[in-house]
Amino acid sequence: MSDKILEISGLSKTYPDGTEALKNVSLNVKRGERVVILGLSGAGKSTFLRCINRLVKPDTGTIKFKPDNDSKTYEMANLADYRLSEPRSRIGMIFQQFNLVDRLTVIKNVLTGGLSRYGTLSSLFHIFPPSEVARAKSCIERVELTERMYVRAADLSGGQKQRVGIARALMQSPSLMLADEPVASLDPATSKIILDVLARVTEEDNITTLINLHSIEFARGFANLVIAFKNGELVFDGAMSELDDGRLDAIYSSKR
Ligand SMILES: Nc1ncnc2c1ncn2[C@@H]1O[C@H](COP(=O)(O)OP(=O)(O)OP(=O)(O)O)[C@@H](O)[C@H]1O
Ligand SMILES: [Mg+2]
Predict the structure, then answer these.
(1) CB contact at 8 A, 63 and 51
(2) pLDDT tens digits for range 67-92
(3) Alpha-carbon Rg of the chain, whole angstroms?
(4) Considering only CA atoms, which of 22, 69, 60 is closest in space to residue 44?
(5) 232 CA closest ligand 1 atom index
(6) pTM of the full predicted structure?
(7) Within the chain, where are the H helices?
(8) Which atom of ligand 1 is nearest to the CA of 48?
(9) Minimal CA–CA distance to 240: which of 216, 223, 217?
(10) Which helix (DSSP H) or strand (DSSP E) does residue 177 occupy?
(11) For a pocket test of ligand 1, which of 17, 36, 47, 210 has the largest count of ligand atoms closer than 8 A to its C-beta?
(12) DSSP code of 40?
């Protein structure tokens, strides 16, 4: 799977209450692609993203994740819990609600992105090696937030908070970035800017990106590939250029 970063086969997830969130989903993602995930609310988009880094444990199926061309392949769906930290350290995640620690400064929030590299003492006492601090500063610079580096996260605007979210993810040197509606809490103008930042940094670092978006316009601007879910089934997997009105109607119609 050398040119593929993800090989997903027969993935299914039913929640304990009986909701079938994913039904037998199979797809491959090539290294360096930008993939947008579309579908109605409840279609399974978040569940799909969360299975990839095992925030959700799928019931059946396999998720082969090969972070780099020369790295080993991890089978995320069935990996023992205690072995997840290694592959997870190469998967950045960005959230709609930013998931920052409000009382900490921008730079401390970004430094937490590298915690898997420097362990418990750093995380308990917030003491970080100088090399990591330099790295965090460079990640902050890349999202154009240098002037706000020592401001508490609570005192930032939404757009600035998501810049911190992106910088924190970059701190991990991810090869894969998962973004679950990263701009759903932002106004349209800010959303566009944040998606541009995300596109730029992931392009620069050749980070493969899977992103859930509700706006087709933003999706077209961001991604070259589209996958779409409907009632837990994968109903489209192709180029953005193939996503015509008829296909969009089928994805977003409430009919099964
Ligand atoms: N923890 C959970 N327990 C039970 N059901 C869940 C859980 N998480 C999600 N679901 C259900 O699984 C289905 C898929 O949910 P999911 O969050 O993946 O959808 P989504 O496409 O991300 O929707 P949205 O666009 O609203 O974020 C929905 O019916 C949802 O109610
Ligand atoms: Mg969701």
Answers:
(1) yes
(2) 999 999 999 999 999 999 999 999 99
(3) 18
(4) 22
(5) 14
(6) 0.95
(7) 45-52, 85-88, 106-111, 115-125, 130-142, 158-170, 188-204, 216-222, 245-252
(8) 18
(9) 223
(10) strand 176-180
(11) 47
(12) -
